[in-house]
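Hi Y.,

Following your request, here is the sequence exactly as I used it, all 216 residues.
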Amino acid sequence: MAGPILGFIAVEQGSAFAAKAAATAAVGLLASVSFSVAYAHAAHGRSWPAALGLGLLAWLCAAAPLSLLPAHPLLGLGLALLTLLLAPPLFPQPRALNKAMRLRPSEMGLRMAAGALLTLGVSGVAGMMGSHWSGLLAVFPMLGCTLAVFSHRSQGGAYAATLLRAMVTGLYSLAAFCVSLSLLLPRLDMPLAFGLATLLCLAVQLATRNTGLARR
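Below is the corresponding structure, written out as tokens. Let me know if you'd prefer a different format.
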């Protein structure tokens, strides 16, 4: 979801603006992980509206000071890696999960619609708020919100907490995409910059996935 949002921003605001937004997006992973940690803890014993409210509050409390940091790729890379390395122990201990359920086509459609609406909403307001908040909103936990709420409703809080904890591993690829895009946009044509950043994103995703399978 962050890729299309940054793509819309680049087309509307230019490569320089989008490069700063991408650097801030890497920093913004701290706020996204804050949402996941808060929701995961709240999901044990609370309903999904309460858990979602606490998660969004945690995101806002983290994003506000992050918006004051300079938009620099190395700062984004360093803070993103530090966040992702330190995040797993902050989640609650895994609990016994309910039996996996097969999703009905109607619920899958609702998940897709919710994710699409969140993406369009964030894309619509991002460019009007400056490069810093545009970057932070680009990595707003839209997918986390959608999957956590639907999973919480259908399979319980423990399932939602486990899902959010597992999603942190996938954020390494998002960090690679944002940092590389912020470095490439000022130097290359926009399509080539996005293409190379996407290839790096996929490579990091495969590497982290294989590392996880090897540890199992």
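The mean pLDDT is 87.

Thanks again,
Q.
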